[in-house]
Write a sequence for this structure.
C-alpha cells in the first residue's frame, strides 16, 4: 500500500535552474564508496525540481550499487544526461520490464524505484529511459532528458 501511495502522491514539481556540477557534487557525497567520473561543462544548467531530481539520482545509484557497480559515469550533452555504471548488465527480457510499477527481480525490492523515477522525469517535461547500447566501457546507461526551460 505504501509503495502504491508513493506512485500516486508525488509532490508537484517546483522547477528551478540547477547548476548541474554542484547538484551532482551533493549526490556524489551521499555515495562515497562509488568512484564517480563526471564529464559535464561547468556552465551546464538544467531546469528541474532539485528534490525530485535527487530522488531519481538516488534510485539509479542505489540500483547500480545493488548490481555491484563500483564506477558511475555521468555525461551531459544536448539537454540529456547519460548516467552509466559498471554493474551487472540488465538482460534484454528484464530491460523491457524495469519501468513497470512493482516489477522487481530483488527479494526485498518493491519495484517502484525506476517507475517512480520515470514518473518524476515525465512530470517535469523530461524522460528516463534505458539506453539500448551503454556508454563505451560501462554495462548499463540510463538517459535522463529534460524539458526546455
Amino acid at each position: 500500500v505504501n509503495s502504491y501511495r508513493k506512485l500516486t502522491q508525488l509532490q508537484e514539481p517546483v522547477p528551478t535552474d540547477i547548476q548541474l556540477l554542484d547538484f551532482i557534487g551533493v549526490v556524489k557525497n551521499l555515495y562515497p564508496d562509488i568512484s564517480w567520473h563526471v564529464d559535464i561543462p561547468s556552465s551546464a544548467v538544467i531546469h528541474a525540481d532539485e528534490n525530485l531530481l535527487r530522488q531519481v539520482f538516488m534510485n539509479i545509484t542505489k540500483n547500480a550499487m545493488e548490481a555491484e557497480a563500483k564506477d558511475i559515469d555521468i555525461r551531459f550533452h544536448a539537454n540529456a544526461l547519460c548516467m552509466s555504471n559498471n554493474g551487472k548488465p540488465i538482460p534484454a527480457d528484464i530491460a523491457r520490464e524495469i519501468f513497470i510499477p512493482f516489477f522487481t527481480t530483488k527479494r526485498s525490492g518493491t519495484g517502484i524505484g525506476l517507475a517512480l523515477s520515470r514518473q518524476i522525469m515525465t512530470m517535469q517535461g523530461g524522460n528516463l529511459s534505458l539506453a539500448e547500447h551503454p556508454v563505451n566501457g560501462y554495462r548499463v546507461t540510463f538517459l535522463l532528458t529534460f524539458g526546455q526551460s
Summary: The beta strands are 16-19, 35-39, 45-48, 71-77, 80-85, 127-130, 140-145. The chain is about 35% helix and 25% strand. The CA atoms of residues 21 and 42 lie 6 Å apart. The first strand starts at residue 16 and ends at 19.
